Amino acid sequence: MGIRLINIKTIPASKNLGQMSFFEFQDDIDFLIKRIYYITNVQAGCVRGFHAHKELKQILFCPYGNIELTLEDQDGIQTIVLDDPSKAVVLYPCVWRKMKWLVSDSVLCVAASDCYSESDYIRNYDNFLKYLREHDED
Ligand code: T46
Question: Which of 14, 47, 82, 110 is the most buried (most CB within 10 A)?
Answer without folding.
Answer: 82
